[in-house]
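User: My instructor asked us to take a sequence, write out its structure as tokens, and then describe one feature of it. I'm not sure where to start. Here is the sequence I was given:
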Amino acid sequence: MMTGRDIVCLSTQDWNDLWTRKQRFMKMFAEAGNRVLYVETPVHLLGLDILPNDPSRFYRFLAGPRQISEGLFIGTLPVLLPMFQMSHLINRTNHVWIRSLLRRWVEKLGFKNPLFWIYTPFSAPVLEGLEYDSVYECVDEFRAARGLISSKVIGEMEDSLLRRVRMTIVTQENLVAHRASLCPNTFCVPNAADVKSFRDAAFGSLEDSRSASRFCRLYPILDRFEAYRFPGRAAAGLVIRPDWADVPDGKAGWYQTFQQCSSTGQKARKHDSRLLAVLRYLH
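Assistant: Let's start with the prediction itself. The structure tokens for your sequence are:
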């Protein structure tokens, strides 16, 4: 495991948002003896899905990074100009502020030669003029995204980032070819379930979790049952934990997680071992 490094993670997920590999990896790195600055997802002035419920985001950046555990710090960016994924000019304007802020945060934390771990495909300007190590983790095909985003522009931004980073990690094999053509050190580390966290949250104890293997065998039935009885819901979560039935669609992730758990811990162990093998390249 990589240890003794200072890591700056530019994420597309807030720390307390839906728990994904972004938070899991950074927590794992911090627990392994690295120092991690986790920079939460960029939000722009038209971010009506976030700002009304989080007005303090307008000034939270002024306090700088906040420590939440040993070696793990969370930073929130200022609210940015909108449509930066549709315009190179707007994106560069935003990054004048982002670069300045990150520089101050890195100096404040005393980070030395940090490794930039990047999930944001538009972040090439952060690396301009820097000699730091950098990893781009591509978790989606952003060219196919909808909303305030231009497929052409975001594609050009991602390509620029791919040419600058030392290594690229993708989550699916179909993301490899194009990224590898621009960043030769491209590796696939697929998503996998964190089986222990899933088991503990669902069952509370090892004895109770024995029902999981029996439940997983019901998948073919549940898959069809869910479409009729619980449209848009996670059937597995509702059956095992009915008290979670009011969780909004897309937040629980139970159906996907149980599907990934159908091979118990094997996929998760394979996933972690592949990540560790990839990280050896950074030494």
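For the description part of your assignment, you could build on this observation: Confidence is low (pLDDT under 50) at residues 206-268. Try explaining in your own words what that tells you about the chain.
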